[in-house]
Amino acid sequence: MRYKVVVADPKQLANIEAALQIVDPQAELVEDKMAADLELIITVEAAFKVSVQAPQLGDAGNWEYQDLDIHDPRYDAADQVQRLKEIIRLGIIKVVGSYLQKTPPWGILSSVRPTKIFHYLRDKNFSVAEIKAKLGSIYGLSPTKADLLTEVGLSQEAFFKPAHYVSIYVGIPFCPTRCHYCSFAAVSLETHRHEVAGFLKALRWEIEQIGALCRKHGFIVETIYVGGGTPTSLAESELDAVLQWLRATFYSDATREFTVEAGRPETITPAKVETMLRLGVNRISINPQTMHQHTLDLIGRAHTVQQVEAAVAMVKPFPLALNMDLILGLPGESGADFVDSLTRVVGLDPDNITIHTLAPKRAAHWRKNFDELELARDQVLQQVNTEAERSLRENGYVPYYLYRQRAILANLENIGFCKPGRESVYNIQMMEERQTIFGLGGGAVTKWVYGPDNRICRHQNPKCPATYSHRVERDVQEKTGQTQRLLG
After folding, report:
1. Is 160-481 assigned to CATH 3.30.565.10?
2. What is the pLDDT of residues 362-372, one digit of tens each?
3. CATH topology of domain 1-100
4. Closest listed residue to residue 331, CA positions, set 159, 475, 180, 167
5. What SS3 class is residue 378?
6. 144-172, pLDDT tens digit by residue?
């Protein structure tokens, strides 16, 4: 729909448009009232009284709210500026959502990391009960999502560490083939095998330089995560070398987690498992995404369901925590198909099961024709999501991290469940952005967390393996300087 917005402060227009897109992804702001499908008048008065009116809708188009909470002395001036944006958003989704008969379960939270709201309020010394009330009254979450967010946020607090603890992420940007839904930094070895040697030479140099940087600043490496791409798509000798470099450079008695993604099960061999165990890896990811062969073929994953089961059987006898991922909403799959996949994965007894809800991504093969895919309806996905959570809880799993993506199907979330005490620490640190993470390798993102309010500064390595190899010296120099400025 097209919307004519009347508001005194034009700086609020971007905020209003973002709110509209929560309930109407195709929302467009227009200047001409005659060209609009709906006119919205936003009024802001003193003492945080906000009204949103849609004159065409009569009484149903009138909403107002006076925020008394923001006068609590635990808030500061910056909080007040942000709160005004939030209350305007709340009014938009209430008025327009009611008109379109949509009630977004996550309310006004359209950002990737909704749990940040919980931790922000905890930092302000609000109680859990106070936060849960605010999640409904101010942020517009449904009671179910408010409960979930609170549960996850509480579980994460024990994992936050002092600033001298850091994590290491290593991006191996190679895969056997490229999946159609994927937007990660990865190229197919079918066409880019010739770039591996140069990439590994550059990666070894970057590992050495960032290792020296960590030692200089006295950083303690809490977790090491080797992702991609598919790290286990490297040859056995290549993977052995990478893990040796990482262990020699970053690993210590304080390193509680060393993870390798083996998302494509056909890339796992007994020799690679032996290498991981020998070099201290204690967590592995095997990600089927679905347990239906026709879907695996459709989404471009060149492996079988039987290979998933064989890979799990290969690693199960060893002391490796096991992560497994599934995608809800894959094309051609019904709700019953997903429930069947989940039941089969639960039967494999992994330590961690993450449910990703499908979302269109700019770098994915499907991006241009996403609307043409045969996808389940929102109501079906929401029902299956609820059923999946209930099933996982009944089987002893608890939620411990979650995140969202713009345009995610059915306005849902990606959520990780684990057996109690088997949380992936890296997943928590990466999502909550309470710990500096140094990104090494192709497409890897370094995030510095600094200052009393946990501000974030980012640097991304080139995604292309060849470009990464050519630019690695410059990128390391930039990261070294930024570390000194922000954390020195």
Report:
1. no
2. 656 666 677 77
3. Double Stranded RNA Binding Domain (3.30.160)
4. 180
5. helix
6. 999 999 999 999 999 999 999 999 999 99
